Amino acid sequence: MTAPIDYKQASADFDGFMVDLREALDRQTTHQAWGVLLGGFHTFRIRLKVEEGLALAPALPPLLRSAFVQDWHLTGQALPFVCRTALEEEVIACHRDHQLAQLGCIAATAATLWRHVDRQRVGAARMPKGAREFWRVESPHAG
Q1: Is 141 helix (H, G, I), strand (E, B) or coil?
Q2: Does some domain include residue 140?
Q3: Which CATH number fits the domain that encloses residue 102?
Q4: Which residue from 54, 96, 109, 118 puts its CA 20 to 30 A from 65's CA?
Q5: Rg of the chain in Å (alpha carbons)
Q6: Would you say residue 55 lies in a domain?
Q7: pLDDT per residue as tens digits for the range 11-60
Q8: Half-sphere CA count of 123, side-chain side, radius 13 A
Q9: Is residue 141 domain-resident?
Q10: Which own/partner pairs from 130-134 qualify as long-range (CB within 8 Å, at least 24 positions apart)?
């Protein structure tokens, strides 16, 4: 059996994602963008039950899936989703000395993720209230 194309292309796809994310976040390096991504994943994950996170993970490309579960410490009850500004402050606080996240980082990360995920799988994943809103892309041209 041959390896699935998702795995054969994983490194190139991940590199493309990180460059897209760096540009969306207006960061100087993909290292800075990586810190923002990890902060966003952490902030999102602590609001999920394990089964909810594992239902969403297959929608992510392989290396993003790995980043999504990286350092996931199962510490108990999921936190509630709160307003976007409070969530972004949490992302900014993660790795504060290394990644320079700014307000707007969740929307920029979400817009980049939406270009790189399996939308059907994301739509099929059962998520708690607030989870889909977390990854909503704010558009100044909406409405």
Answers
A1: coil
A2: no
A3: 1.10.490.110
A4: 96
A5: 15
A6: yes
A7: 999 999 999 999 999 999 999 999 999 999 999 999 999 889 988 898 89
A8: 3
A9: no
A10: 130/47, 130/80, 130/81, 131/44, 131/47, 131/48, 131/52, 131/81, 133/81, 133/84, 134/44, 134/47, 134/81, 134/87, 134/106, 134/110
Question: Which domain does 32 fall in, by range?
Answer: 8-133
Measured in residues, the chain has a length of: 143
pLDDT band at 141 (very low <50, low <70, confident <90, very high): very low
Q: Tell me if 42 is assigned to some domain.
A: yes
The verdict on pTM exceeding 0.85 is yes
Cα separation, 59 vs 44, whole angstroms: 15
Which letter, b or e, does each residue of 59-97 get, where b requires 16 or more Cβ atoms within 10 Å of its Cβ?
A: bbbbbbbebbeeeeeeeeeeeebeebeebbebbbebbee
Query: Angle at the Cα of 2 (from 117 to 121), degrees rounded to 5?
Result: 20
Burial 3-21 (b: 16+ CB within 10 A, else e): eeeeeeebeebbeebbebb
Count of domains for the chain: 1
Side chain identity at residue 102, one-letter code = Q
Q: Which amino acid is at 74?
A: L
